Amino acid sequence: MRSGLRDAAATALIATALAAAYAPALLAPLVDNDSFTVVYSQTTLGRWDGVADMFSPSYFSRFGIGGWRPLSMLAYSLVYRLGGIDPVPYKLFKFGLHASSSAFVFAIGVLLIGDRRWALAAAAAYFLRLLQPATAGLAFFPDYMAAFFCLAAMFGYLKGTTPILVAGLYACGLLSKENALALPALLLLTGLALPGAGQAGSRRSAAALASMLLVAAFYIGVSKWWVVVENFYGPALWTARASPGRALLEYGAYWREFFGSDAVLLVGALGLAGGRVLGGRWLLFVLGWTALSLWSVLNIWPFFPRFESYLLRTETRFLALPGAAMAWLFGCWGANARRRPALSAAACLLGAWWLIASARDDLLARAGWDERLLAGLRQDAAFAGGAPLYGSPFSEAALSLPLIRRASPGTAAEIERLLRRRLPRRDAEETLAFFGDDSLYREAWKAKLAVQLMNQESLPAFLTTLAAESAYRRGREALAAGDAPRALDAFRAALARDEEHEASCLGIAASLQAEGRASQAAKQVGRCRASGLLHEELAAGEDSRPSVREAARDYARALQDGRLNEALRLFDSLRGVLGPLWRVDLRLSRADALLREEKYAQATRAYERVLAEAPSGWQGRGSVERELARLRRGSRAAFDSAMRAFAGGDADTAIAGFGEALRLSPDFIEAYLSRGALYADRGRWDDALTDYDEGLRQPHAARNPLLLRQLMSARAEAARRTR
Fold first, then answer.
1. Cβ(298)–Cβ(309) below 8 Å
2. 710 has pLDDT over 80
3. Cα 131 to the chain's mean position, in Å?
4. DSSP, res 652
5. Cβ burial, residue 167 (10 Å; 0-12/13-18/19+)
6. Cβ distance 537 to 231 under 8 Å?
7. Are the C-beta atoms of residues 175 and 153 closer than 8 Å to each other?
8. CA atoms within 13 A on the CB side of 150
9. What's the rounded Cα separation, in Å, for the pair 487 and 505?
10. Which of 98-112, 269-283, 364-378 has the lowest mean pLDDT?
11. Tens of pLDDT along 151-202?
12. What are the backbone dihedrals phi and psi of residue 326, each rounded to the nearest 5 degrees, phi first?
């Protein structure tokens, strides 16, 4: 009785201390980029009719990073309906999921380790190590939901629960995040490496494993089909980043991220090597579990081959599932070490060290969220103009400003003073006006624009886009009020600030028509690249959503009939729902046009903006990066100069120019093809064959079918002539 009361009191004391330590993080009114992007830019969150869309193939393609997570998005939608823009419900949901997962880590640890105290230590380490992402921001539902359902399915599997229930939990994990796909292999590994664990290996567990394999096969089949239907990923590529060696480096980085300290890893390695407290089967289980569950995190699954990795850096949250194995390794090490006094003492010290290291970032933080944010904002490198905005203190302050105004008016006032001091007066006022009220979270167009703004490569680019959009909105309001002259001035101001603001181009045409200048309006429409591109892409079936196709047809009819005001309204709605890829294609078409006009400085900036806005899996990223490198090295200018000499009949100058382009950019396939053609015209077939072979050896030759056919045809002729 006394022992039970003592344990209960200790548990209550620890829970109270943790609650006090993490309360500031739970209650902080801050929204980071990931949170805002995932939660507030989802136009389906506020509508029940959007739930069906979450489970559709079109939603798969719009997710952007190779996953289909309808259950996670449904959870976001439900929490959004309950809590609106308040961050606390999102954090509490993640906190509850993570606490439940930690309970499963303990329960499974008892089955695997056979020692309740060290299973509890493993669960505590797991809980603390992965708690920070659960209390920071509003995002990361998929990681915690997939871990919860997978650990629940594993517990049911080990306990011999009904196979249908286990398969159902596994299916929920898959619909939460794609890394749950590894679970059947992980459970099979459990049975092979630890055959005595729980009921693994029984007839019921075998049936559960078979059911999960069927679910996995169905999931892979549907995913493969959707990839083909949506035409989202392009041809399969095995990239250098996805090579086995690179994967091993990634795995090592994640182990270090989970344990929190290289010193802890060193002590653990010494204990394992010197004490031999773990058998080979346990090491096989832990290493295999970690490798398999991280395999999908690194996006090397056969049906996601296009992506090298969507992880720019290691983050603890991605260890929600593999981190369980690392925690069990720690628990098993301690349980086995207790039979040896020296190792037992080392295990206790290591455990205390690890638990403190796991929570050190939060437990040792002396400044509150407001002090930390203000200190970061005062030193933010983004104000210097060269640092990216994504994840910067400026980004966090702007996206959180309406919440901060409600929670801490004094902090909001200080942020406003800082922005007015660091930004030009007009830019500061436009920034505060845009981000200053709750409409930032309620209005879909504003949320999507905020995401676009925070993905700009620098603060000047952010201010340019915001100023153009603000002027455009003023023009739309004036046009709706019948004040065409004022609308025309606003649209022209927007286009002057950002020459790629295509909506303003169409707005000028609508304003001219409203003033009765129909012929000038028609000429203006012809200058708007977006009109033709939008019509071409949607007519070709680029978007599978019926509502979008219908709006696109209405837009095309309005444009054709000369109803430019109506066309502008439809264009405005379409550009808000088409997602980033269409805007990237539009920017790319303008960059290509600048390149053809040999405006190299402008083209360089345009290509840089394309890369800044393109999602990680965009198929054209490699070609744009190569073109940008050619512009920066000067090889594009040398190539164009050689082409002019060739057109003028000066073959010697052209050959020298192509050679200069290749000296600056040895991967310039077009230069090999062009110089080879000149060599062939002069009868220098050996030199031509060498150039064609060099062009074919370039890794990206296979990704350009037209160029590849030209090279192979020219090479065949050169090879025939050299025999």
1. yes
2. yes
3. 21
4. H
5. buried
6. no
7. no
8. 32
9. 12
10. 269-283
11. 999 999 998 888 999 999 999 999 998 889 889 989 988 888 887 776 656 7
12. -65, -40
Predicted confidence (pLDDT) at residue 573 exceeds the cutoff of 60: yes
DSSP letter at 387?
A: S
Residue type, 683: G
Band (pLDDT 50/70/90 cuts) for residue 624 is: confident
> Alpha helix (H) ranges present in 528-577?
529-539, 546-560, 564-577
For residues 499 and 587, the answer to whether their CB atoms sit within 8 Å is: no
Place of tokens 């004040």: 483
Q: How far is Cα 555 from Cα 573, in angstroms, rounded to an integer? A: 10
Chain position carrying tokens 């169409």: 506
| Nearest Cα residue to 317 out of 294, 334, 344 | 294
CA nearest neighbour of 126 among 156, 91, 151, 153:
151
State the greatest distance between any 2 C-alpha atoms of the chain, in Å, as a whole number: 101
How much is the CA Rg of the chain, to the nearest whole Å? 30
Give, in degrees to the nearest 5, the angle at Cα 529 between 525 and 531. Answer: 60
Q: For the purposes of burial, counting CB atoms within 10 Å of the CB of 631, is it exposed (0-12), middle (13-18) or buried (19 or more)?
A: buried
Spatial contact of 285 and 158, defined as CB atoms under 8 Å apart: no
Scanning the structure block, which residue is given the tokens 């002019």? 644
- Average per-residue pLDDT in the chain? 78
- Cβ pair 559, 551 in contact under 8 A: no
Residue environment code for 546-583, b if the CB has 16+ CB neighbours within 10 A, otherwise e = eebeebbebbbebbeeebbbbbbbbbbbbbebbbbbbb
Amino acid letter at 411?
Answer: T
**Nearest-angstrom CA–CA distance, 87 and 137:** 7
Token code pair at residue 610: 């394309």
Identify the CA nearest to 434 among candidates 421, 419, 422: 419
State the helix-helix crossing angle for 518-527 and 502-514, rounded to 10 degrees.
170
Tell me how far apart the alpha carbons of residues 590 and 505 are, in angstroms, rounded to a whole number: 13
Separate counts of helices (H) and strands (E) for the chain: 38, 0
Residue pointed to by tokens 């512009």: 631
Residue 677 to residue 695: CA distance in whole angstroms: 12
Chain position carrying tokens 């999960």: 212
d(CA 107, CA 116): 9
DSSP 278-292: S-HHHHHHHHHHHHH
What whole-number distance in Å separates Cα of residue 631 and Cα of residue 603? 8
Written as six digits, the tokens of 87 are 């961050």
Structure tokens at 395: 């980004």
Among residues 89, 124, 91, 93, the alpha carbon closest in space to that of 106 is found at 124
Locus of tokens 């999102």? 90
Is there a contact between 81 and 129 (Cβ–Cβ < 8 Å)?
A: no
Q: Read off the pLDDT band of 641 (50, 70, 90).
A: very high
Which one-letter DSSP state was computed for residue 456?
Answer: S
Q: Quote the tokens at residue 628.
A: 């940008």
CA 275 distance to own-chain centroid:
43
Q: How far apart are CA 170 and CA 184, in angstroms?
A: 9
Task: Answer whether 327's CB lies under 8 Å from 126's CB.
Answer: yes
